[in-house]
Amino acid sequence: MSWIIKSLVAIGVASAGAAAKADALNDGLPNQATRAFISEYDNALAPLQFVKFCMNYDAECAADSAERTLPSGDRAMSALREVNSSVNASISPMQKSTNPMVARWTVSPSAGDCNDYAVTKRHQLIEMGWPKSALRLAVVLTGGRGHLVLVARLADGDFVLDNLSSSVRPWNAADYEWISMQSGGNPHFWVAVGERGERLRATRLAMLRTVE
């Protein structure tokens, strides 16, 4: 449980520091939707279900104990397509409780929801030798509802594995509002992302300037 407390402390420290550098970081960057990689901003609270998932599947949330290397080019994309397709076919869709106190993310169930699909795909790719830093769970909104997907970070961009799609798509080809995503530096931490993360940072900057 100590990592949970450390995460909460880190959120406050990192948010203040990151917000102070926001103007410099964003100068000259292209529009969000044209970027190959999802823009990351200040630390964010991890979903409660994710915290529970890490308590039940500790190894899934631990950092890599040894250096791992991404497959190259076509091999990487082929593996992503195979895992996305096979997991989508192996888990029967089932509506589960959205109550954070009851909901539970499960690896490789016979039936499950978007959360189970996403963590199962991440688990299988890790078992294939992929680095955890390149496999990041992400919360998005679709039709106003929360949804979990897996983002694979390759050399040429971020790609989405999704139980709602049979294809592996670039992140900006998925019509989602991006909310937050696992940090690449530490699997326990999450960061605000996309336009929402940009707006949150701008709000924090404005608050800091008001205090000054």
TrEMBL record:
Check the record and name the Pfam families matching this protein: Peptidase_C93
Signal peptide position in this chain? Answer: 1-18
- Keyword annotations: Signal
Is the Signal keyword given for this protein?
yes
Q: What is this protein called?
A: Transglutaminase-like cysteine peptidase
Native species: Bradyrhizobium betae
